Amino acid sequence: MSTEVKGEVEEIENMNAIQDPNTLAALQEKLGNMSLKKDADDILADLPESIRKRINAIKNIQLQTTQIEADFFEEVHKLEVEYAKKFEPLYHKRKEIVTGTVEPSESECIVPGEDGIKDETIDNDAPEENVKGIPNFWLTIFKNTDILCEMMQEHDQAILAHLVDIRVSFPETGMGFVLEFEFSENAFFEDKVLTKTYEMKSEPDELDPVAFDGPEIIGSTGCTINWKKGMNVTQKLVKKKQKLKGKSETRIVQKVIKEDSFFNFFNPPQIPDEDDSIDEELEALLTSDFEIGQYIRERIIPKAVWYFTNEVNELESELGDGSDDDYSDTSDYDDELDKNENVVANETVTNVQNEDCKQQ
Is 44:55 a contact under the CB 8 Å cutoff? Predict the structure, then answer.
């Protein structure tokens, strides 16, 4: 038998052996007993005491470097606050142009490197007269941005058409930030500005220093929206007829439940006092809330015009970088609301003709 033929025969025999159930079972058992990665306790247990001591010494060095890293992030935050003051007049000018308070000069309307819009893309039927500022500037941004569009319901759009500015401010102490949504006078609520405050920290946990990965949001607080009568889009009145037991009479039972709306953003889930009481669903809600706040702060506010023109989203689509994948699906809000039926007022029995839905 030639060497070549012998090799082919051995290869066939090896393949048959691998396909044998007993051989496969033995192989799987052997692989199962092989630990590719050991946990920390096993690693240390396998080391001599002298080396374990040196490892502990290096851990103490690591704790010191982690603290320096935390200090670094605090300094970065101070720098961000300092530069926010430089951005402020530019964002104010943006707001004035959006609202029509200020008309930009001809020179301000020339963008370097842009030759203008091609003639074939111009809508000659678009109205020119009596147009003030940039109508629906922020509403268009919401529509063009997936993470915001998922939160926005159809009944929110009429309200968001009155949104004239979104800005961020920083408290005098701490590492948090405040998102401020300014609205023009409208028929929905009395407030001029709605706020969402995020509390942050940059402190390593002495008991779990490995988990430190820079500043983290540890809580958020919304604000009370003073809705005008009958205009609260975050609530829905449900009325049902109920037959009285043993009688032919019926009564009307009504209760107020939460309605899906972007404005639930200003009523965020609360963190329990005990961390152990945070279940997976609540953790998902909190994570989603925190990520949306960071997204608005880091991307929407500084790059608003690119989201209005949709240039940011087009670029991300071309690059396929999945930038928005870093932010959680906001449907977590809706799932939690649907699961708990969102009862926000006690069930009442009333005459429908004599009782109106009470709005805050």
Answer: yes
Radius of gyration of the chain measured on its C-alpha atoms = 30
For tokens 């007022």, what's the residue? 345
Q: How far is CA 283 from CA 159, 201, 278, 286, in A?
A: 30, 18, 6, 5
Distance CA 119, CA 315 (A): 23
Dihedral Cα 304, 323, 260, 272, nearest 10 deg: -110
User: What are the tens digits of pLDDT across the range 140-152?
Assistant: 999 999 999 999 9
What is the residue type of 303? K
Among 227, 102, 101, which Cα is nearest to 159's? 227
| Range from 228-232, 275-279, 301-305 carrying the lowest mean pLDDT | 275-279
Rounded Cα–Cα distance for residues 220 and 274 (Å): 16
223/115 Cα distance (integer angstroms): 45
User: How many CA atoms does the CB half-sphere of 105 hold within 13 Å?
Assistant: 2
Determine the Cα–Cα distance for residues 66 and 210; give it in Å rounded to an integer: 9
Residues 6+ apart with CB under 8 A from 327: 147, 291, 292, 295
pLDDT, averaged across the chain: 79
Global pTM value: 0.72
Contact 164, 182 (CB under 8 A): yes
